[in-house]
Amino acid sequence: MPALTRHIHPGWLIIAPLLVLVMALYLGPILNILWLSVTDPEPGFGNYAKLGESDALIRIVWTTVRICIITTLFSVTLGYSIAYAMVHCHQRQKNYMLTLLLVSFWISILVRTFSWLMLLGRKGLVNVTLEDIGLIAEPIAFMRNELGVLIGMIHYMIPYAVLPLLVSMQSLDMRVMDASRNLGASGSQTFWRIYLPLTTPGIVASTLLVFILSLGFYVTPAVLGGGKVLMVAEYISVQLLVTLKWGTAAMLAAIMLMGVLAMLWVMSRFMKLSTVFGGAAR
Amino acid sequence: MAEPNQTGSLQVRNVSKLFGTFKAVNDISLDIRKGEFLTLLGPSGSGKTTLLMMIAGFLDISEGDIALDEASIANVPAEKRNFGMVFQGYALFPHMTVRDNIGYALSVRKRPAAEITARVDEMLELVQLQEFADRKPAQLSGGQQQRVALARALCFAPPVLLLDEPLGALDKKLRVEVQEQLKDIHRRVGTTFIYVTHDQEEALSMSDRIVIMRDGAIEQVGTPKELYERPINQFTAGFLGKSNFIQHNGKTFALRPEKIDLRASASHPDARLSGTVRSVTYFGSMQRVIVDASDGTEIEVDIDVWRNSETLREGDAVDLLWTDDAAVELQMG
Fold it and tell me: What predicted TM-score, i.e. pTM, was given to this entire model?
């Protein structure tokens, strides 16, 4: 035992059972997927080769990436203004806003998606109102296209974007902004040169969170895209449940996983990831 | 280093600050001379920081006016006042190097890069931080951060420098050292310094004049010596240094512990009071003796050990002597 603890910190022994459990339940299935992607239907990299051969697959991956980028851009930008407003308003209003933010977490994604269908459909509230006041002659096509998917996804993602930004902004020392003003900087100079750089870890955390969550979106594209906007998650489910090509599904899942890991790796080249996830900045 | 300062006198005229119905600063008037080191001294809640924040422009003035060289600045926003400020906790920009911190004021004024570099070098030399120019604030000690804050606030040659308890975060030994540096820098730049503190030793050792504040109002203004030797009331006498309070003919007098003589033998002809020694505490440079006086009061006496070699013991009968000018008559309050 002493020989063992000389090389291994005893703390590891305490968390060992949990570690084994996580490995078995989490790493196991992931390895199984990776294994499937190179063995089904036959051993080799045939599934991955399809990426180069099939235009449909490339289009699906590209659609997914494009939608995720646009969603992230809008969610983080809107989330930034919401977080800013929350941090810098009075405590009472802040409590109201925080409650509303939490409420939106409690409402199921299915409910929120179908509400958009009610609002934005051809006979939805928005189109009917606009027609009644004579602004438009024909209903605007909000649904069954990429616009609808984007509206639904951005709406769902904003609360997620707000949280890391809120944490980052709340931990700021506001005397630093006073110091900037005192040294003669205008409001916009203070924002661009002090406030924005100091909240960058929050922006990166928010961007990563929203982008990674968006990659796996299934319900919203399926309902609001009306089958016309096919994203990776929906395609994987089709491969699993309808066409039973588990190898292709596993390959797409593996690509997504590696994409996320690659993003984290690139980010870690530019900044310490621990600061993004709330660690101390150096 | 001579600064091209033609300005730097401040006039505070009947200034009040209300938070709701609470008067944090109550009708204060004060003339601050160009180039002086003025300290606002008071316990917490005395309104000294509130007054400083109004001078800096971070708080609006509820009533009255503040003027720089007789021209009102009450409606000038903080970023246009051109006052340097050293914040409590320094408020350095954590993502910038020392050099960028110090040059910030010139950089937001869009001055040419060469001028900024030259001026920052000058400031780095002033605060002796040349070799730390490329470090981030987190890599510096508290004392070094304090000097960066000072250099940053002085870089654009402001007419007035405001300091909000700048030594509060430093340990005691370092504080004395930094006090000397601060005074030295004040002498060299000639800027008006307005210094807020609750530490009476800091105030005494550095200031040209001290403003003693309590409950949002000024108690007394004067040089450190004037305030120490001639306090006008019990609050000033007790806040600045130690003091005994003697009642005589219905009047109250302040009597500093070091201005009392102790004689061991009883019934001395010139004795003002007599009593017995309750305790003797040795402090090295002096001895503090607490005497239970015959009139029932407790008197503290500081004795120069070197010149008074006779040893006092608890229970000794003593006479207390002092000259007429040692006791200062106080106003009520």
Answer: 0.82
